[in-house]
Protein: Dihydroorotate dehydrogenase (quinone)
Organism: Arsenicibacter rosenii
Amino acid sequence: MYKRLLLPILFRFDAETIHHFATSSLKFILSIPGMSWLARKQFVVTDPSLQRTVFGITFPNPVGLAAGFDKNAELINELSDLGFGFIEIGTVTPRPQPGNPLPRLFRLKADGGLINRMGFNNKGAGPAAQRLRQRRKGIIVGGNIGKNKDTANEQALTDYLLSFRELFDSVDYFVVNVSSPNTPGLRDLQEREPLTRILQALQQENKAKPAPKPILLKIAPDLTDSQLDDIIAIVRDTQIAGVIATNTTISRDNLRTDAGQVAAIGAGGVSGAPVRSRSTEVIRYLHTHSQGAFPIIGVGGIFTAEDAREKLDAGAALVQVYTGFIYEGPGLVKNICRGLAGASR
């Protein structure tokens, strides 16, 4: 029903406008007495074979929501009702910021993809932490943190530490985002020296806590093999918990969408089906060359249980969806979980 009836209507309107409409509608519908219970009955798959214990956390299923969909932690309970095993908020910055000028979210319908140049639009780490403290118990949440646009790279560590401190008591794990293509200069922080400095400082503060939280690094799909080797070394040297592979790509190769239309859209990161293969390649490279030394969360182009299985077989311990959720609708997590549970028997 979603793909045949609703999607063609929704896709007639601006992508970001529809995102806000859809999320507001979800929040309203599930606030009606009894609707949250009905949603869980419809969408939540409970099967012991789906449980995963990764970096010390037991997940009810391996399918999470990637950062970017619920930037401000406003839909945690509602998204959990749709069956997600975990939800990642953000990217959150210390101070609120509006992000890049509109329009900044575009569909590549022929490719099953999106281009976005959102620019870390969010309401700040403090309000997100406050909302997270009001969520239902038992919902696993990751905090994806970045720097403000007007913070120079030389001072980026301060921003990461501020968000880390603000969110620490409200999230179950952290993700350091230095791989978005939509904040000028941010990807320069993926280089070995600045990245090591940021992660070591976060780990130093983390280990001083009575109960440290897992810290993961989110990387771009556009890294070379030598840069991926550096990532493996950085994870080893800083002893962070793992890696999320991958963020969006700046590549425009092999798109089916008209080249003129893509050029007119302009800058931004491509997500969805166009990044699926490269994301899997990166997962496989990291898993193989590190000899499975750390957990990987696989994200990029997951629309079906088979897509999720591809990531898991390549070495991912968990997976996340975003663009696939938009194209496939609220039944996506249920369909993936049923497929994975069936394959495990």
